[in-house]
Amino acid sequence: MRLLWLVSEDDPRFSEHRGVLEALEGWSVEAVHAAWAALDAVANSSYDAVLVDFPVPDWSAEDWLEEALRVNAAVPVLIREREPSFDRAVRLTRLGAFHYLGDPLGPEGLLKLLNEAAHWRQRWEQARGGSHSGAEPWRRLLIGESRAMRQVVETIRLVARRRCTVLITGDTGTGKEVVARAIHMASGRGHLPMVAVNCSAIPETLLEAELFGHVKGAFTGAIHHRIGRFEQAHRSTLFLDEIGDMPLDLQAKLLRVLQERELQRLGSSEVIPVDVRVLAASNADLQERIRQGRFREDLYYRLNVVPIHLPPLAERASDIPLLVAHFLEKVCSREDIPPKRISAEAMERLATYSWPGNVRQLENAVEMAVILSGERELLVPSDFPLPSPAQWKALNATSLPSIRLPDEGMDFEATIARIERSLLEQALRRSNGNKKQAAELLRLKRTTFTAKLKSLQAAANW
Question: 319-322 long-range contacts, Cβ below 8 Å, gap at least 24?
């Protein structure tokens, strides 16, 4: 990977920094000493990351960053200053810096940041189909040609470049965040990362600080200043998932930020202007929650300027073959597995299934079929042991479902094998295919987990 390093020849730590950078595994470093030369390189060459050590003669960090993002919006810029400060970190991050290097950072920390920057750039380019693509790259996120999907696509084309808020509704697993990312990518803010917050995944006591930030001493445990997600999303997009689970008192503060376009960090009286495009999503009926007194009506209308509803997968079954082909390619590519095919009988089974877990369940089913089919190229119906809606509900419950011994008895080994397979599959899903993390979730040694997985794969091949 390639790193462009802009640094003054008079920088007293030039030799020290150069030694660290040139020792980073997997990175080649090109050092330039003139700001204009660095901008020209950014505009005309492909770098995985850019590191700038300020001060740079005749340039402020703000001006150079703005010009760099103007000539190449895809470049992740990391800025380091001799006298770092929290306020400078906030300002430059809001202006589009990928990261601001403040505290002394060792080689391992620097390598981690650079790898994150390179990964972000790779995803940015892949999503856009390359920097020279003239098509609508965001359209590739939305798999399907059904009438419902065509309506979603047309709505995105109309609203993406506006600042209006969008409320995305639909059952769990229908792809609400994917639609949000498509809107962001199609907007004029797509060169900056979208910031996402799941309002139901963060405790109520912490959600306000998560959104708006806090100052040191604002509450017990606040030992540092911290910028919130709104400030992180300045000039970009903030996606608020499961907005219906936000506490009522926090809903009032969110409404004020949306109306006034300014906020106050927790524990501070300073008013901070923000330029943020807000997208929200909910799988709950917000109008019913309004009637129950659990959601503010004024906030609902402020969010629901443009509604987008995603129907359950069962209502757009014509999209299933396209989704299956997409997930097959995605999983095989990610896992470095030779391409696999799906039999007509297996596709028929998938196309006629009810999919209570929607698109997310379909993706998980394809992923597990690919992994557990071993070396076999063709996927068959038995690779997709799809649960009934009642079984799906039990599998996703917080407690283990009870097992009743029928009067005629049961095959103990086969039953235990099914439970074992289910647990292995769930652990792989939770860990996004990471076997080490999946083993930890099941309190197993990695070697034991791998052995059980191979045993299942062998049984599938047989």
Answer: 319/143, 319/144, 319/145, 319/146, 319/149, 320/350, 320/351, 320/362, 321/347, 321/351, 322/143, 322/144, 322/145
- Residue (of 61, 102, 67) closest to 85 by Cα position: 102
Q: Which amino acid is at 223?
A: I
DSSP assignment letter at 76 = -
According to CATH, where is 1.10.10.60 located in the chain?
403-462
Q: State both tokens at 393.
A: 């509900």
CATH class of the domain whose range is 403-462: mainly alpha
Number of H-type helices and E-type strands within the chain? 19, 14
CA gap 343, 67 in Å, rounded: 53
Query: What integer is the mean pLDDT of 112-124?
Result: 80
Instruction: Give the integer Cα–Cα distance in Å for 410 and 415.
Output: 8
Q: In terms of DSSP H, where are the helices of 141-247? A: 147-159, 176-186, 204-212, 229-232
CATH class of 151-310: alpha beta
User: Where are the CATH 1.10.8.60 domain residues in the chain?
Assistant: 314-387
- Residue 445 in this model has a pLDDT that exceeds 90: no
* Residue 81 clears pLDDT 90, i.e. is over it: no
Residues paired with residue 195 on neighbouring β-strands, in sequence order: 238
The domain 2-127: what is its CATH number? 3.40.50.2300
Class of domain 314-387: mainly alpha
Residue ranges matching CATH 3.40.50.300 in the chain: 151-310
Residues of each domain in the chain carrying CATH 3.40.50.2300: 2-127
Token representation of residue 235: 């000039």
Residues in the chain: 462
Residue 260 CA to residue 86 CA, distance in Å, equals 25
Rg (CA), the chain: 25
Mean of the pLDDT values across residues 387-405?
A: 56
pLDDT digits (tens, 9 = 90+) for 193-244: 899 999 988 887 789 989 998 888 777 777 778 888 999 899 899 999 999 9
Provide the angle, in degrees to the nearest 10, between the axes of the packed helices 204-212 and 248-260.
10
* Overall average pLDDT of the 27-41 stretch: 86
**280: nearest Cα among 263, 255, 262:** 255
Task: Spell out the residues 6+ positions from residue 18 whose beta carbon is closer than 8 angstroms to its own.
Answer: 29, 31
